[in-house]
């Protein structure tokens, strides 16, 4: 895949998957890897799981070929689905601080997100978070970073020009 210029998406992360991505990118450093749904992973707070999580996140954060789709942000918490950014800010901040503004990608997770909240409300949360960081960072998150991660080509005149990135 790396030799062909392709990327690998991995989904439904847990600590073991993060550790596997560390090992994979050790062995194939040229492979671009996109971790889907990372906000969904609850941050372990105790014992070996916490230590393993922190180590894997720190290692992956150092690897410029590892990207994160910030999707599945909205979740059920204590029997309800909060739609306030404050409920998710700590996790989003952790991801942003670990991977930086150049390796985070928008992903709608539609129609799956409809089981938690209507898509416009889910979109509004990530818009609020990333627009507060400025227009440039929001553009990177919502489309520009996808060019580096997927190396997509413009196929329609209405699409943004990847060469402008």
- Look at the structure and name the CATH superfamily: Metal-dependent hydrolases
Q: What is the CATH domain class?
A: Alpha Beta
Q: Using DSSP, what is the number of strands?
A: 4
- Rg measurement, Å: 16 Å
Question: How widely separated are the two ends?
Answer: 24 Å
What would you call the quaternary organization? Answer: single chain
Biggest β-sheet description: 4 strands, parallel
Q: Which CATH architecture is right?
A: Alpha-Beta Barrel
Strand content: 5-15%
Distinct helical segment count = 5
Helix share bin: 40-55%
Describe it for me?
With 165 residues, the chain is an alpha/beta fold. The protein has a single domain (7-164), classed as TIM Barrel, CATH 3.20.20.140. The chain is built from 5 helices and 4 strands; from the N terminus they run βαβαβαβαα. The protein has helices at residues 15-27, 47-61, 89-99, 119-131, 135-150; strands at 7-10, 32-35, 66-70, 104-106. It has a 4-stranded parallel beta sheet with strand order 1-2-3-4. α1 runs parallel beside α2 (47-61). The longest helix has 16 residues, at 135-150. The chain is globular, with a radius of gyration of 16 Å. The model has no long low-confidence stretch (mean pLDDT 93).
Provide a quick synopsis of the model:
The protein has 5 helices and 4 strands; from the N terminus they run βαβαβαβαα. The mean pLDDT is 93. The chain has helices spanning 15-27, 47-61, 89-99, 119-131, 135-150; strands spanning 7-10, 32-35, 66-70, 104-106.
């Amino acid at each position: 895949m790396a030799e062909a210029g392709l990327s690998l998406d991995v989904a439904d992360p847990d600590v073991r998957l993060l550790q596997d991505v560390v090992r994979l990118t050790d062995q194939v450093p040229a492979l671009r890897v996109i971790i889907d749904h990372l906000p969904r992973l609850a941050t372990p707070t105790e014992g070996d799981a916490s230590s393993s999580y922190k180590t894997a996140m720190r290692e992956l954060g150092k690897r410029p070929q590892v990207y994160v789709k910030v999707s599945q942000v909205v979740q059920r918490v204590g029997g309800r689905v909060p739609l306030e950014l404050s409920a998710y800010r700590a996790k989003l901040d952790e991801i942003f601080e670990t991977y930086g503004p150049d390796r985070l990608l928008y992903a709608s997770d539609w129609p799956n997100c409809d089981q938690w909240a209507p898509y416009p409300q889910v979109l509004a949360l990530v818009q609020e978070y990333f627009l507060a960081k400025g227009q440039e960072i929001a553009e990177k998150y919502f489309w520009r970073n996808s060019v580096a991660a997927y190396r997509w080509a413009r196929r329609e005149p209405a699409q943004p020009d990847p060469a402008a990135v």
